[in-house]
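ESCALATION

Customer reports they have been waiting on this structure for their group meeting. Please prioritize. Original submission:
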Amino acid sequence: MTKIKVGRIDFLNILPIYHYFDQMKPENVEVVNKVPAVLNELLAKGEIDVGPISSFAYAQNASEYLLLPNLSVSSYGKVRSIFLISKKPIDLLQDSNIALTNTSATSIHLLKIILEKYYHIDANYDVMLPNLTNMLEYHDASLLIGDDAFVDEQVILDNNLFIYDLGELWRQLTGLSMTFAVWAVRKSSIEKFRESLLDVYHAFIDCKQLGKEDLNTIIDIANKKFERGHQFWKNYYEGLIYDFDQPMIDSLNKFFYDAFECGYLPEPVEVEVWREANESNR
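Update from on-call: job pushed to the front of the queue and completed.
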């Protein structure tokens, strides 16, 4: 039996979907668990067929991919796990040195766009392993995402650091939601595994609903990994959006256009969804 390789982000933000997908996935599915930056590369190389990737990585390879409908990792305001942590206020970062996590694509470009287009700030960037202490040793600020961004608040206070939630900044500056990860499928994989990929899609949708209905189980699992208390994780997961409706698509297209204007994409990109998945019968 030929295995369909499905990516899985190695962060807690996708737990409401993957906790159940790991249990309910079709028999011909092999799950590949990696951080977003690695999944971006694997999908681009055809080493996985489908899965969540950085939304910016979709824009870089849009001609090769379609997006699964109704699936994303987004926020309308605070995302609570994507932070710029700085020694000085954001509006004073002109010519500063900023350390960027090596696990991200979307958040790196979102930060650059926010600083360049909206704050008119030019900075110097270095990509590093995501460790706050090491990042701030020789840099003025750092960008952390996912599980690496769950920094103890006391560390922020003790070191007089400033912390900015990129989802919240984007909302304040544009009034829009921000989609950090999307579920992309290779067009070449659809040609080979159409029916099986439709089964995978429907499994994702079912599992998303289960995660929503049984959020306390998700919270308990997350709290065992990072003991922050029930309310912290409740706020975290309730602040994330796992849907992908038309207003969210329009907002993501706006981000892509900003990336084009800032020179991070060679041409404007617009989202193309795999409509057949949305229309398929169970």
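Sent to customer with the following note: Residues 4-76+178-279 form a domain with the D-Maltodextrin-Binding Protein; domain 2 fold (CATH 3.40.190.10).
Escalation resolved.
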